[in-house]
Amino acid sequence: MPDDRKPIISGNWKMHLTHLEAIQLVQKLSYALTRDDYEAVDVTVHPPFTDLRSVQTVLDADRIPMILGAQHCHWEEKGAYTGEISPVMLAKLNVRYVIAGHSERRELFSETDDWVNKKVKAIIAHEMTPIMCVGETLDEREAERTQAKVEGQVQAGLDGVTAEQVAAMVIAYEPIWAIGTGRTATPDDAQQTCALVRATVARTHGADAAGAVRIQYGGSVKAANAPELMAGPDVDGCLVGGASLDPDEFARIARYRTT
Ligand code: PGA
Predict the structure, then answer these.
(1) Does 98 fall in a domain?
(2) Number of compact structural domains in the chain
């Protein structure tokens, strides 16, 4: 990976942890990570909405350079959208990264490419960074439709986003069959599809955007497989679910370069 793409390791806590448990996790994680780690790698954590304020307070009070992220948001600034959270609310909490279009949201909550695109634009408009997720199901993989699916999602999600904005974004390639299943894409598979994401960005937004956009792999990442996954030249980071709930394991993933 070129030196100008700083690796980014993100912990997606999904629907786990009360705000009290979240405070404990972030504190334990802060003991496990060092200044050198933060210099080498961007570390983002994505707690549930009810935990954001508590985690933000701990990060601010203890000056922990971990970066606050959210898992989802609506694209409108306000309005009659019961249960939704707006990008304005997240930005006010110093949230810097927001996941858009996680496969669980696409599958379980029927999020479409069009919604993902609206969210990506709204997140950017509020000066936060989208982590836009793409990836194929097992059926699509077996039918050799991975390329078409991933290219289509990248193209649709980035529609109308400028090349400069894409350059500053993160895209996470997460094969759906590898999420929470213990099955991981091989390092070659992960590299190949991350390279495909980059090639798609090159076609839609030009070589500069493609060279700068950071691409994560996600799906059963653990401390044991992170170094080989991160070795792919187009893999700039990991989006970690289950293993991010264990502070020592997540810290070891963030320190993949020394293991
Ligand atoms: P996992 O989840 O690491 O538990 O497979 C990854 C994700 O959903 O982002």
Answers:
(1) yes
(2) 1
Confirm whether 205 is a catalytic residue. no
Residues for the chain: how many in total? 259
What does the alpha-carbon distance between residue 129 and residue 165 come to, in Å, rounded to a whole number? 9
pTM as predicted: 0.97
Residue 224 lies in a domain: yes
From the CA of 171, how far away is ligand 1's center (Å)?
A: 14
Q: Which residues form the domain of 66? A: 8-254
Coil/strand/helix, residue 173? strand
What's the pLDDT tens digit per position in 6-49? Answer: 999 999 999 999 999 999 999 999 999 999 999 999 999 999 99
Which tens digit of pLDDT belongs to each residue from 175-201? 999 988 888 889 999 999 999 999 999
Residue nearest to atom 1 of ligand 1 (CA): 241
CATH of the domain at 183: 3.20.20.70
Q: Can you give 44-85 as a three-state secondary structure string?
A: EEECCHHHHHHHHHHHHHCCCCCEEEECCCCCCCCCCCCCCC
Nearest CA to ligand 1 atom 6: 241
Pocket of ligand 1 (CB under 6 A): 12, 174, 179-180, 218-221, 239-243
The structure tokens listed for 106 are 């696409």
Say which amino acid occupies 245: L
In the set 104, 111, 136, 174, the catalytic residue is 174
How much is the average pLDDT of 125-133? Answer: 98
Q: Is residue 122 one of the residues assigned to a domain?
A: yes
- Distance between CA atoms of residues 29 and 13, nearest Å: 13
Count of other CB atoms within 10 angstroms of residue 110: 8
